[in-house]
Amino acid sequence: MKRIEAIIKPFKLEDVKDALTEAGITGMTVSDVKGYGRQQGHSELYRGAEYVVDFLPKIKLDIIVEDKDVDTITELIVKTARTGKIGDGKIFVSSVEKVIRIRTGEENEEAI
Questions:
Q1: Whole-angstrom distance, CA of residue 51 vs CA of residue 69
Q2: In terms of C-beta density within 10 A (0-12 exposed, 13-18 middle, 19 or more buried), how is residue 13 classed?
């Protein structure tokens, strides 16, 4: 099993969620996060004073999938979340040793 962590722009969340649902993904965790990469933040004016916004709002998706589905799901996220502009995000894939569904006690693939 693999854990896919995708950092995307907030306005792309619904498009990505809909595409993942169509692909058969039945669950994910969504978090509001802040960060920066090459985008580096930007300056804004508030009541006449300029200040720097270092961390930009992003959305983090956590999805657990079977090994065979990793390429399909990551390609789908890239295709759906891409705007072609800086700050589109990143995807991280890591191994998951064990998953347990608390309610039923099911483990691993049955618990996904």
A1: 44
A2: middle
